[in-house]
Write a structure and sequence with these properties.
Number of strands: 15
Number of helices: 8
Organism: wastewater metagenome
CATH topology of the largest domain: D-amino Acid Aminotransferase, Chain A, domain 2
Shape: globular
Largest sheet: 9 strands, mixed
Distance between the termini: 39 Å
Order of helices and strands: EEHEEHHEEHEHEEEEHEHEEEH
Pathway: Cofactor biosynthesis; tetrahydrofolate biosynthesis; 4-aminobenzoate from chorismate: step 2/2
Pfam family, one: Aminotran_4
Number of domains: 2
Structural class: alpha+beta
EC number: 4.1.3.38
Cofactor: pyridoxal 5'-phosphate
CATH superfamily of the largest domain: D-amino Acid Aminotransferase, subunit A, domain 2
CATH architecture of the largest domain: Alpha-Beta Barrel
Length: 278
């Protein structure tokens, strides 16, 4: 059940600018044993997104919603913050009050072998537009990802990788991407498009403990094919090793498994049922 401004079962009005224009931001937070994992990072990104869009983040209300929904056990909290109600036209109203929508749900069930053995990934045709004004934040307009996700219906394909209109690989439809070249762990910049993932940030900080040197570098499709390992990450799945992208297969993913173990030990991911490192 959704909560709207703290009211269970309520619905946002039809004049909400998030509904009309995608004028807002969202966060998807993993709840690990009753604790919202990486919440300071989610909270900071939400605040940056509101500031980028030009309205004040209602952080006290957001904090209250997270506290009310964290509960016990594992789960997922979805937060949406919109600019609030407004009339016709794109011009933001000066007197709009931000609206907070929140919901707790269960953990999506996915095959444990996606973590153990890796996933199959689709190369998306849909490209990400270069738009630095919106890059990095989780704004509500996800139409590029919607179009990309329509490109496959094979349940054996877990995710799709997207490049920008210049041909640089940026991210998955719902994930950030890492490529390991020997002891260098590369992830693309998100200054022009893409999302600055909270799990991406955590993996960059964790990499030296795994014997890896993190680097933010542009990646191409040809470059990915030369990588020793390919990983995808987000706050719900943690890390998925990639087993296949088009004709390229990666039979080994020791680095990804070590990263999963480290994230699980720190309590920052929901450990997949049946997970263990071979």
């Amino acid at each position: 059940m959704w909560r709207v401004d703290g009211r269970p079962g309520a619905a946002p009005p039809a004049d909400d600018r998030g509904l009309a224009y995608g004028d807002g931001v969202f966060e998807t937070v993993a709840v690990v044993d009753g604790r919202p994992a990486l919440w300071p990072d989610h909270r900071a990104r939400l605040a940056r997104g509101c500031t980028r869009l030009g309205f004040a983040a209602p952080l006290e209300r957001v904090d209250a919603e997270v506290a009310a929904l964290a509960g016990q056990g594992d789960g997922v909290i979805k937060l949406i913050v919109t600019r609030g109600s407004g009339g016709r036209g794109y011009t933001p109203p000066t007197d709009a009050g931000p609206r907070v929508l929140a919901r707790r749900g269960g953990v999506p069930e996915r095959p444990v072998h996606w973590w153990r053995e890796g996933i199959t990934v689709h190369r998306c045709v849909t490209a990400l537009a270069v738009q630095p004004a919106l890059a990095g934040i989780k704004h509500l307009n996800r139409l590029e990802q919607v179009l990309a996700r329509r490109e496959w219906d094979d349940p054996g394909i877990a995710e799709g990788l997207m490049a920008d209109t210049r041909g640089n690989v940026v991210a998955g439809t719902m994930s950030n991407v890492f490529a390991r070249f020997d002891d260098i762990l590369c992830t693309p910049p998100v200054a022009d498009c893409g999302i600055a993932g909270v799990m991406r940030r955590r993996i960059i900080a964790l990499a030296p403990r795994l014997g890896l040197r993190p680097r933010v570098r542009r990646l191409t499709w040809d470059g990915l094919a030369r990588a020793d390992e390919l990983w995808l990450s987000n706050s719900l799945v943690g890390v998925w090793p990639v087993a296949r992208l088009e004709r390229r297969a990666w039979p080994e993913a020791a680095g990804a498994r070590a990263c999963i173990d480290a994230l699980a030990a720190a309590g920052t991911i929901i450990t997949p049922k049946g997970w263990h490192s071979p």
